[in-house]
Amino acid sequence: MAADGMTVRRLWIRDPLAILAEGAAGGVVVEGSRIAETVPAGAHPSAPVDETFGAGRHVVIPGLVNTHHHFFQTLTRAHPAAINKPLFPWLQALYGIWGRLNPEAFRLATRLAYTELLLSGCTTAGDHHYLFPQGLEKAVDIQVEEARALGIRAVVTRGSMSLSQEDGGLPPRALVQDDDTILADSERVLRLFHDPKPGAMVRIGLAPCSPFAVTKRLMRESAVLAERYDCPLHTHLGETRDENAFCLEAFGQRPVDYLEEVGWMTRRAWLAHGIHFEDEEVRRLGAAGVGVCHCPTSNMVLASGHCRTCELEAAGSPVGLGVDGSASNDSSNLMEGVRHALMINRLTYGAEAVTHRDALRWATEGSAACLNRDDIGRIETGREADLALFTLDELRFSGAHDPLAALVLCGAHRADRVMVAGRWRVIDGQPLGIETGRLREEHSRLAHQLFG
């Protein structure tokens, strides 16, 4: 029974073509927002169901979990000022352009990014928003509103920049806020929106942008706030050699030493990129349980380097996946990111060392672990019913023999159906409640009007 006394309907997603779960070849039973039962091959559910969805054309995987993005950057994809540049010159080229961001454009950028992610099979969308020019002080509120309207699970991190170029940082003065303003707003959005309970649809994290954009005081006090409100911590770290050199020059220490000094060596924290770590630093991060979000597409576009995924996992760090900002990735497609993760990690470690199942695991269970969530990321009884269903009806899949491997190797990029918390949010490849043509037109108009 539901809390309101009404009977919760039971849905059997029956006999899928393939499913990424042990002992569930007969499908799964969804009751309310959760998976009530997994069904072995040839079996039936243990209790009656109210509805059956025949999944004989579908490959079923856990909903993908995106652990790093910058939604606002969908407005500056393939921008001529920034293409063909590494990270620091890329940022310097775009900071002045991003200062034109306004609430209307940000709302559309957020809506478009959530929709893109959902269509790629993503059911939990993490964003790292660190840009608060004048007039956009309620950016987190906008992201929460849009997530709720679309029905996607969200982890919105209240990012920040407080060190301008005048203070020895990278961003211009117009894009930074002072520490007290940032901390006050961080506490405001935590009180308003953060839900630490299992099954939460919205959680808030605290995410000072990077060592070259914030003060050590902000890093320390964000960690204190995170402990008080039981919320996650997120930042960029170890993305490029330039970042390591900046930390050595500005602080006299490497990024991992910096992280330890400010109290972030904790399972509460996960890092974006995490590329340029030495062996001892990998060991220390793993011992502390600090998670790392691997961003393969962005790392290749900006030529930042190879994330040490296998060593980090072996050391004890959760490894997840993220699409990163659309200005460095130019796409918000996490299923595409799974394929890129497979390819770059095989190039790094060898063809036999990393499988399609590893790449899918990073995007599901690994990403969930980065967010310290054990209620999503796997198809098993008791977890949230977050599912992505793909068909293999396109020419790219013709001749494929292993359906799960085909999703990754043949380049699946759009889900046919997506379920979040037991409710269909994508049906027949279309997001419910969103006119994608109109969204694209409005988003594109503002992108060219503001940033062209």
TrEMBL record:
Keyword Hydrolase recorded: yes
Domain Amidohydrolase-related: 59-424
Similarity comment: Belongs to the metallo-dependent hydrolases superfamily. ATZ/TRZ family.
Domain of life the protein comes from: Bacteria
Gene3D superfamilies assigned: Metal-dependent hydrolases, Urease, subunit C, domain 1
Residues passing through the membrane, by range: none
Name of this chain's protein: 8-oxoguanine deaminase
